Amino acid sequence: MNKTILFTTIAVLMTLPAGTMAEEREEQRIKTLDEVVVTATKTEETRQDVPNAVILIDQYDIEDAPAVSIGELMANDPGVDWRTQGDSGGAAQTIHIRGMSSNATQVFINGVNINSPSLGLAEVGRLPVNNIANIEVVKGAGSLLYGSGAMGGTVNIFTKRPSRDIVDLKVEGGAGAQQTNHLGFENGLFFKNDLGYYLTANYDETNGFRPNSDLEHKDISLNLVLDKGDKLDLSLYGQFLDRDFGRPGVKPPKGTDTYFIGDVAVYNRESASLLDKGWDEDGLLVLTAKSKPNDRVNITLMGDVLSQENYNYLRYVNSFAGTLPGSKSWTTNTVYEVEGDVDITVTDKGLLLVGAEYKYYDWENKSVDLDTTGSALDGTKDTIDENLHSTGLYGEAHYRFMESLKGLAGIRYEDHSEFGSEYLPRFGLVAEPRQNTIIKAGSGKHFRAPTPNDLFWPDDTFARGNPDLKPETGWHSDITLEQSLMQDRVFFTVTYFHWDIDDKIQWEPDSEGVYTPMNLRSFDADGLEAGTRIRILDNLQLSLDYTYIDADEESRAFRVMDYGFPPDFPPNFEFDWVNRRAAYTPEHLFKSRLVYYADFGLTVSAVARYTGDRVTYRTETDGVYPNTKTVEYEMDSYWTFDMKLVQQIKEHLFITLLGTNLFDEGYDTFLDSFTDYSTSTTSVEGYPGAGRSVFVKLAYAY
User: What is the pTM of this model?
Assistant: First the structure.
């Protein structure tokens, strides 16, 4: 019945006449080959001139999407897999491109890498959406221009700037399920000739859909701009965020009773932890100067400071018998960076880009054990402070052999204080065999440096870092067809890709049983991604996206070696390498999006997503020969349906109704072990995705 009412409502809305709203949105064209991309080459190029497959998300896409985070916005776009640690208020949200891990996707804000140096990944759920002007997702090897970690692709987020002769002002507030509340503010203008600013601030809170899944989030950003045209464009961008959140863990199996230590409840049937907490404080400051002294030269200089502090409170590491109850830890990452590049139009057919980048990392980890009361244990405080630095030099040449054929080639030299140096080449071709038909091909070497956690994690008898690690390396190649039809009313793109990774860094028990990172494994994948955008009517747009990923990872399979008679005990082992399906990587991803604009100020957006089944493994080994069956755990495929309605009430007043997972689909996002200390049994359980949620927002926009 709910589905019938919902689909009937959508059908009725679409029969209403188009008019003012559709006309105002006429500038929101279907994605075409003429769109400008910066991230792919660090120069302004049209989409048809870059050798990469790209996803371009503009202001209208962001405003219309039934999404409250960047990850939700991009989820299931071609080649993109968005994952959360259970959808709780403060759950980590990461982006995976083409089946690679989250630390193989580099996320930038105004050109600054915001991936956590200690973890190697970017938690995109922290980032506010209302300060974003547009997003560029460039898939394929990006290490030539962006260094370590740009293996699957890059996500570059560009924040809002003031507009000349326009005052931007927006105030909004909303409330929804799970006692969710939101307040937001935006203001931008040029207040003196060429000097302007854009300011945003947000406050969000929620109780979450499970015990201990609460979140309190505050952020503020400011972009100061001095715009003197081609002569000089100077911007100073800063942002700060503060988050406190619970860590509920997996959902225990049915029948689990609330477990107490003393009078303190440790877990219940909804949450594996009622006490664990987290806290983040992130700050970013970046100064960017751009100048075009003449028609042939563009210069960009950038200096930035990134600060990330993360606090973890684990109340009971081992709840059984109340021994070794917990710990507190603080990890601080501070990164200082300077970068400069210049692109020179050497001839009418050729362009040369050269640049240099220097980064200095300061990593600090503090930890202290807790006693049975939750107080710090004397003499257990441990502090490690390490510094790293890297230098990158890169160059790339573009040359148009003929009107319909363009090539590029380049190389990067990367020198890292811990593992030495790497040379990273990249090649690409772009051909236009006929008007509005583009064929792209590219291949490049990529790498990922070990993180400070990998290198320097303190020896706590359970784990320790490995300063002798080598970087992960490999190649990423793809070929793309892009086609625009019917005067840009239809646009589609299809890509085949292949990538591989050698010396994959994996935490494994060493000869003493202590977990430590090692260069053990290799990964590879083949895949296909396709997307189409169709303007069915002037006020009705449809998009369909599909991704297929066949990803394999190497794992160790142990063989028992018996010597003599009777067999030795304990037996001797040796191991072989075997391939298995990559953990947590769905083979199939699908997304359908329908957007409708009505003449009476209504915008309706509906998104359906399908995520295929995923597998994971309890251990990194397949088992013991002759029983070679992989011990795997499967998470079922699932569909979700989200919808957003925005109605203009008066000239500057808007009301928004957002519904997510409207059919209340049950699904798991990750798996982990859970021990019930009442029965001394351990099982593998899931981090559940959130159920149905509804949110209402009122906004004044000037």
Answer: 0.90
Contact (CB, 8 A) for 312 and 346: no
Q: What's the one-letter identity of residue 143? A: S
Tokens of 200: 């945003």
Return the number of other C-beta atoms located less than 10 Å from residue 681's C-beta: 10
- Which tokens go with 664? 């209340």
Round to whole Å and give the CA distance between 415 and 358: 10
How many angstroms separate the Cα of 236 from the Cα of each of 227, 299, 683?
12, 17, 51
Task: Tell me how far apart the alpha carbons of residues 120 and 313 are, in angstroms, rounded to a whole number.
Answer: 21
Task: Print the SS3 string covering 417-465.
Answer: CCCEEEEEEEEEEEEEEECCEEEEEEEEEEEECCCHHHHHCCCCCCECC
The pLDDT tens digits for 90-149 are 899 999 999 999 999 999 999 999 999 888 899 999 899 999 999 999 999 889 999 898
Tens digit of pLDDT for each residue in 450-470? Answer: 998 898 888 766 788 888 888
> What angle is formed at CA 500 by the lines to CA 47 and CA 359, rounded to 5 degrees?
70
Q: To 5 degrees, how large is the angle CA 451–CA 453–CA 455?
A: 70
First to last CA, the chain: 40
Burial-class residue 17 by CB neighbours within 10 Å (0-12, 13-18, 19+). Answer: exposed
Residues 6+ away with beta carbon under 8 Å from 656: 174, 644, 645, 646, 647, 695, 696, 697, 698, 699
Three-state SS at 168: strand
Domains by residue range for the chain, with CATH: 28-220+346-352+392-701 (2.40.170.20)
Task: Reduce the DSSP state of residue 375 to 3 states and report it.
Answer: coil
